[in-house]
Write a structure and sequence with these properties.
- This protein is an alpha+beta fold and about 375 residues long.
- About 50% of the residues lie in helices and about 10% in strands.
- The chain contains 18 helices and six strands.
- The chain has a five-stranded mixed barrel.
- α7 packs parallel to α9, α14 packs parallel to α16 (about 340-350) and α15 (about 325-330) packs antiparallel against α16 (about 340-350).
- It is globular, with a radius of gyration of 25 Å.
- The two termini are about 25 Å apart.
- Mean pLDDT is about 90; it is low at about 1-5 and about 15-20.
Length: about 375
């Protein structure tokens, strides 16, 4: 019975914090749908031009009438005109994506429109099919990162944001190291994209093809890690991950020397680091021993901001060497934070070592009611 409870608790704690999603870039944030996906998923994709001013439909959503010029994708014949939902008024040409529950049976088409000049229309036409292998598709989009046309640059970033990390790793030789260094080090780059570019730079630095340029690439990553921080820097987790990809354990040494594992490090940076460590656990076990990743995570237990999440991560990693440090959180941080108490209880119940039972009993003797509540909460993922 005790084994069943422990096994269930292990499963619960592992679900309590979302692990790095191997199916998409963990540092790119929410990127939405790519244009190729919208094109291929639509029953009809057409080029159109405005045929009147915007208005509101019955649901109060802004729409605009269009005159259809030509079909880009889809098997059916396009209509001569369509009314499409818009985000902002369209003055020139547009791409309309039409979806129907059953176009062949004559079901109505729901249209959405995006403003698109000739260059963007050409991009949507030429973009590889979503059914093509990820490696082939990413090589095509790599050349369009930071494209002069904002919509194309955003779409290329979206494709990489949705791609599996291993697919991105396979196309590392297709990135331009000079451009990546410029984008990571230079001003004016969207911070969210900078995080991905740092990850791509780390991948590029790790391949033999770029051995001559490697020192310069790593230097850019190190400087980005050590750069003075403002109040919030999106993408910093990607910068940290890029250094870990490029240098493995030596990258972790740089991070430690930078003081990011110290109790007084900036809370926002500690969150970024925890994210980078999760990524390293999932994807970099061949270059950084997992024991070292777990030990680095354990040092974040001293942070009131990420202590609960770090505890859950240690349980996910089955890093049971840190039971006493975790138990100590009950008194040091758990008094005012139910999330810390929940994480501590979940870790100690899941831990198979005898000392965990002793530590639980010690807490129970001092604080039985709150321990009971914490154990219950820890067994309910997402609560």
């Amino acid at each position: 019975m005790r084994l069943a409870i422990r096994s269930g608790m292990v499963a619960a704690v592992m679900m309590a914090v979302v692990s790095v999603d191997a199916s998409a870039c963990p540092f790119c944030g929410v990127v939405g749908r790519s244009l190729a996906d919208r094109r291929d998923a639509a029953d009809l994709t057409v080029v159109a031009e405005p045929d009147g001013p915007p208005g509101k439909d019955a649901a109060g959503i802004t729409t605009q009438p269009f005159r259809v010029l030509t079909k880009l994708h889809g098997g059916a014949d396009p209509p001569e005109a369509a009314t499409a939902r818009i985000e902002s008024p369209v003055k020139g040409t547009a791409i309309l994506f039409g979806e129907s529950d059953d176009l062949a049976a004559g079901k109505p088409v729901r249209w959405t429109a995006i403003a698109a000049d000739e260059t963007l229309i050409g991009h949507v036409v030429a973009a590889p099919a979503t059914s093509d292998p990820a490696e082939k598709r990413l090589r095509w989009f790599a050349a369009r990162l930071e494209h002069p046309e904002l919509a194309i640059a955003e779409d290329a970033f979206t494709e990489f944001g949705l791609a599996p990390f291993e697919a991105v790793r396979k196309v590392a030789d297709g990135f331009d190291p000079a451009k990546l260094q410029e984008w990571v080090a230079g001003p004016g780059i969207d911070e969210r994209r900078r995080g991905f570019y740092a990850l791509a730079l780390g991948l590029s630095a790790a391949i033999d093809k770029h051995a001559v340029e490697r020192d310069a690439m790593v230097d850019v990553l190190r400087k980005a890690v050590l750069a003075p921080a403002d109040d919030f820097r999106a993408g910093y987790d990607g910068v940290l991950a890029g250094l870990l990809v490029a240098e493995g354990q030596r990258g972790l040494d740089v991070i430690e020397r930078a003081g990011l594992l110290a109790a007084d490090a900036r809370p926002v940076d500690q969150r970024h680091l925890l994210s980078a460590l999760r990524f390293a656990w999932e994807s970099l076990g061949d270059s950084i021993p997992r024991q070292r990743i777990a030990n680095a995570t354990a040092r974040l237990l001293a942070s009131s901001v990420v202590a609960a999440e770090a505890t859950v991560d240690l349980a996910r990693y089955r890093a049971w060497d840190h039971a006493r440090a975790v138990a100590a959180l009950w008194d040091s941080l758990g008094g005012d934070d139910p999330l810390v108490r929940r994480a501590v209880a979940g870790y100690l119940v899941a831990c198979p070592r005898p000392e965990a039972k002793e530590l639980l009993e010690s807490i129970r003797s001092q604080d039985p009611d709150r321990l009971r509540e914490a154990i219950t909460a820890a067994s309910l993922p997402g609560r």
